[in-house]
Model the fold of this input.
Amino acid sequence: MGSRARWVVVVSSVAALLFGPGAAQQAWFSVKQWRLERRLHALQVRHAQLLAERQQLESDPAYVEGRIRATFKVAKPGEYIVPLEEAKTSPRR
Done:
C-alpha cells in the first residue's frame, strides 16, 4: 500500500468516527479511483508504444526483416551468423 493509500485509510478512519460510515466508503472509493487512474495511464502508455511499433511494422521492411531474423534466428543463403551474446544456458558437464 502506497503512502497516499495509507493516508486515505487514516483519514477515512477519522472521518468514519466524525461523520459516519459514508465518509469511510467515500475515502475507499477515492483510493480505488486513484489506483484505476494509475492503471489507465500505464495502459495508455503501452497502447501508444504498440501503435508506434505497428506503424513501424507496416512501413519499414528493414525493421520487419530484422525482427524476423532476431526472433527465428535465420540467415540468408551464404551468410554467417556470429553470436555476440553468451549463451544463457549453463554449460553441460
